[in-house]
Design goal:
Length: 138
């Protein structure tokens, strides 16, 4: 089970950077809005024409890395490696999670698509705490 402190952190942030290896071997990173589930999965709404999803459109998971937390005032960050995949259909549950976070009704288009990121390893750090707080997955 993921630490509730991490869920609170993810719930309080709106932007992440996701990186993955493209099918040609190049690295691609993108800043994205995200919502998170109670299990710590990240949900990213994008379009099926964006570069970040091209290597996932065949339904396969790809290795990916995500960072959340960029504030120089807050000095808290969550870094994770894991897998990313696209939801093969626009699931109502994913839309509901996203709408709750952003307090808006989604205007989904025919090319709208959700990326689901699942971490295999993560580290959350509060650099300003004394002592410094580090929560790392096993």
């Amino acid at each position: 089970m993921i630490d509730p402190k991490l869920i609170d952190f993810l719930d309080s942030h709106r932007i992440c950077v996701i990186s993955s290896i493209q099918s040609d071997g190049s690295l691609h990173s993108a800043a994205c809005h995200f919502a998170s589930t109670v299990t710590g999965e990240l949900i990213i709404l994008t379009e099926n024409t964006t570069r970040k999803v091209q290597n996932m459109l065949d339904g396969k998971s790809v290795n990916a890395a995500v960072t959340v937390g960029f504030s120089e005032e807050e000095w808290k960050t969550w870094q994770a490696t894991g897998t990313a995949r696209v939801a093969l259909k626009l699931e109502k549950e994913l839309s509901d999670i996203y709408e709750r976070k952003f307090k808006t009704i989604l205007n989904l288009k025919p090319d709208s698509i959700f990326i689901i990121f699942s971490s295999l390893w993560y580290r959350y750090t509060e650099f300003k705490s004394d002592p410094k707080v580090i929560i790392e997955s096993q």
